[in-house]
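Many introductory courses stop at the sequence. We go one step further.
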Amino acid sequence: MNTFASVHEVVINMGITSVKEEDFLVIDLHADIPEDISARREKGETHVLETTHLRKFREGGIDAAIFAVWVESEFKPCGALRRGLQIVENVYEELSETNEFVLVTSPFDIVKAKEYGKIAVILGVEGAELIEQDLRLLRIFHRLGLKTLGLVWQQRNIIADGLGERRTRGGLSNFGVDVIKECNRLGIIVDLAHLTEPGFWDVLEATEKPVIVSHTHVQPVARPKESWAGLNDEQIKAIAKNSGIMGICTVTTAKADPPGTVDLVVKEMEYVKRLVGIDCLAFGADYYDFLFPALKIEMPEYDFVLMPGLEDASKTHNLARKMMEKGFSNREIRKILGENFLRLFKEVTS
């Protein structure tokens, strides 16, 4: 059996670098697909994964993804638990209708899924309002397969403040510290995406396990001005010291300066590599092509656009090609696209 330590092959033919996608183990650290599943199933559709997402995953070479359960703002805070459970059930119903995707709960499961030609689904949460102020609810979601917990989205909750509230300079609450400790005990990966900088530092002080920032940008390179701004140098160094990882994402807007492209994503990776090395790097795409019409209506102030070269999951192979063009080694590409997350997954769950 091929293991994740030896699944990469590069073919160079007549000066043109190409990649055998089937030899990569590619893990996307952030996919909003549960939102799409729920929206479509609640309109009467079925087999959403196979009809809407399967082709893109196969063409892009994605072997695994964190499916982030995100509760819509109108259900927060009082209805977040109920809505979160509905979304999880929608995902489970989808998985029961397909032989192409499989729920996984360990790094070994991811490797086995690839061996058998399946796409691995890792259940995550983006915004922990759904556990209310009750660690028992966190344990219940863990029993349902939850492996990553994003503490916040943009808003404030009982755990911490999201980036939309960063004016307040709020950090991690006392209950938030308890959540971190319980995640460490249960083997749930803590995700710092969308967290304010004070909260970021509070989490790193509280955790005993590596953490992730599933989808973000590198501030000195991408210079995001919006409320989902990325990590600065000191934060990147802290993630590396924690043995954590950060997933570079594809989120961009019409006003972005520099413009968001696949080249910019690789430049962000190059910057992190020079600063701290490649062991903390990953890819957290946050593709939103399937949510695009709704985003234009619901969040017009951001003026989101699809990133040229990485418009959707089917284009993911462009990232590996661009990394090779820019001089990343085979070993570095393997680690960034999948092995770094597998290493962290094993550390947190062991």
